[in-house]
Specification:
Its EC number is 2.6.1.16. This is Glutamine--fructose-6-phosphate aminotransferase [isomerizing]. It comes from Streptomyces subrutilus. This protein has 14 helices and ten strands. It has a five-stranded parallel beta sheet, with helices on both faces. Strands 7-6-8-9-10 form a five-stranded parallel beta sheet, with helices on both faces. The longest helix is centred in the middle third of the chain and has 21 residues. The radius of gyration is 20 Å and the shape is globular. Bound molecules: fructose -6-phosphate. The site of fructose -6-phosphate (F6R) has 15 residues, from helix 4 and helix 12.
Length: 369
């Protein structure tokens, strides 16, 4: 049932183009608009929403961090993302005009379920983004948008994460569409680009052999750092989480702008540092700042592993290892930038002799608080 792969995780990484395409299927109509009727929250209700709160755990929380940037940009609705386990313990401000979005692959994560219950008790509307039909979180929510990743068996989340991102983009774009914002043209353009995104993920998968070789060469290291900005920051956190849970290595993700506020003291000779570089188009200021960060850490001896868009030549002189990803709209970049980090962690785990599908101390769904 592993379909010829050694591990479910490898199979599930490979299934990502299909998972992404399936999650989009039937949700973009012939005119290039989104139809999310299945969500069953009337447009009139969505137009009244004045705050969005995303709650989730672990990898799903990283999807929520990216969703915040997309929702605020395309809808101008103030939005926050919170760890589900922290949410109800801090007396959050919620009312009838708050839309809470709970993201969960399993639909059974107790921390997320408790956040959902708390939100509904306060009168907020709850939309679940979930991969498991009929599970508890969608049943207890007002509405659900299912991700169509298919069953995810490996404990470490891969294809579920990419489809959570797709679902978040759909919600963000849909909110923008029903409310009408100044980004109408951009929203239509991004919806068109989403149709090509599965092919872009496939392109990344075809070029992963050097990433595997690199991972094997780092099997004896103790620490790997990950840096990113904007949507690249949650991607950096996700890369670090994958490495912790699979390779049992010390790994940390930082917002690259924070380097100079402390973490740069960690940089020493031969320390592997993975940098997720924003597109040189789009937010080019961020791109240039990250290139300076790469220069700085390399001058201090770091071994730089740079994930950058095809055609980005500015990074070449400072990259000890360069991983290319296809150009995408800025906010969609996590769909392609995360894939090499999944492959990297999986290969490092194998090289260290770890059980890839069943990492120690972890369970696929965490049904206790
Ligand atoms: C990491 C991982 C976990 C889950 C988290 C939430 O690879 O799988 O961090 O993402 O436990 O699980 P769900 O999405 O089922 O609520």
């Amino acid at each position: 049932e592993k379909g010829g792969y050694d591990y479910f995780m490898l199979k599930e990484i490979a299934e990502q183009p299909k998972a992404v395409a399936d999650t989009l299927l039937g949700r973009i109509d012939a005119s290039g608009s989104l139809t999310l009727d299945e969500v069953r929250i009337p447009a009139s209700v969505l137009r009244e929403v004045d705050k969005v709160v995303l709650v989730a755990c672990g990898t799903a929380y990283h999807a929520g961090m990216i969703a915040k940037l997309a929702i605020e940009h395309w809808t101008r609705i103030p939005c926050e993302t919170e760890l589900a386990s922290e949410f109800r313990y801090r007396d959050p401000i919620l009312d009838q005009r708050t839309l809470v979005i709970a993201i969960s692959q399993s639909g059974e994560t107790m921390d997320t379920l408790m956040a959902v219950r708390h939100a509904r008790e306060q009168g907020a509307k709850v939309l679940a983004i979930c991969n498991t039909n009929g599970s508890t979180i969608p049943r207890e929510s007002d509405a659900v948008l299912y991700t169509h990743a298919g069953p995810e068996v490996a404990v470490a989340s891969t294809k579920a994460f990419l489809t959570q991102l797709v679902a978040c983009y759909l919600v963000a774009l849909y909110l923008g569409q029903v409310r009408g914002t100044k980004w109408g043209d951009e929203i239509r353009a991004v919806i068109r680009e989403l149709s090509d995104i599965a092919a872009a993920v496939d392109t990344v998968l075809e070029t992963m052999e050097p990433v595997r070789a690199l991972a094997r060469s780092l099997a004896e290291k103790n620490t790997v750092l990950f840096l990113g900005r904007h949507v690249g920051y949650p991607v950096a956190l996700e890369g670090a989480l994958k490495l912790k849970e699979l390779a049992y290595m010390h790994a940390e993700g930082f917002a690259a702008g924070e380097l100079k506020h402390g973490p740069i003291a960690l940089i020493e000779k031969d320390l592997p540092v993975v940098v997720v570089v924003p597109s040189p188009r789009g937010r080019s200021v961020l791109h240039d700042k990250i290139v300076s960060n790469i220069q700085e850490i390399r001058a201090r001896g770091a071994r730089t592993i740079v994930i950058a868009e095809e055609g980005d030549e500015a990074v070449v002189p400072y990259a000890d290892h360069l991983i290319r990803i296809p150009a995408t709209p800025t906010l969609l970049q996590p769909l392609v930038a995360t894939v090499p980090l999944q492959v990297f962690a999986c290969e490092l785990a194998t090289a260290r002799g770890n059980e890839v599908d069943q990492p120690r101390n972890l369970a696929k769904s965490v049904t206790v608080e």
